[in-house]
């Protein structure tokens, strides 16, 4: 039976995912100062993450991005792409979708330009493409109540997914796994089914830390996380569920019963992260978010300076 090239690429992606789960962190396109990261910045971050002392499994060799556009440009490809090529870092690409059609068009142009400029050196590193990030949550009553940035409707995200598929058809990125990232509360909302139907995979962001209406102490966090993932899996009809964001703050404000700190962050890492690493595609939040200023809360497993020494033991060794 003859198969198209894109079908074979899709099969290869499926098999590679089954053999080895992607393991990495989320990376923003700017520093906390608002300055755009350049290629050298991304390379330094990726290399440092790969060298983390005590990292479980094969280490943290994947990066999830939120945008494909380089900061400070109209539609140039993000410099994280050549940085990933130079450091052999796999990429979960991000297409920003919460700022209207013109911004989405710029994202799409950046993606097409990256394929043309970097070719297979780039496309062979792509773990998947996330069309949007928490857009459905931001457009929900809860998101509006929390005064989040504008989101996008499910019909819009589904349309964007189709446009991305059309844009990469016939390129070396054809057959890439395309999905959407959102909160677990968005995935269990039946009004968002169009996005589920349009996606190859489902990215779930789950933070028991923020679930202040429930008993969300770190002792209960593993149960809350498992409930969130289980509810998502039940809602998405058997599609693969990837963990695109989760973590626990090392510092910052108490939310409900969740108290930030190194001890609790390590407990969450051990109980939630360690079973995921090497078994489920996972991008932890986060590697570093305190550069140069420290946000409140701060989720980074390293502090203000790049270092291969994490703030707590990340080895996933069983404590007896």
UniProtKB/TrEMBL annotation:
Any GO CC annotation of this UniProt entry: side of membrane
One GO MF term attached to the UniProt entry: glucan endo-1,3-beta-D-glucosidase activity
Membrane topology according to the record: Lipid-anchor; GPI-anchor
Entries under Pfam families matching the protein: Glyco_hydro_17 (PF00332)
Gene Ontology BP annotations: cell wall organization; polysaccharide catabolic process
UniProt subcellular location: Cell membrane; Secreted, Cell wall
Leader peptide range in chain numbering: 1-20
Family according to the record: Belongs to the glycosyl hydrolase 17 family.
Protein name (database record): Probable glucan endo-1,3-beta-glucosidase eglC
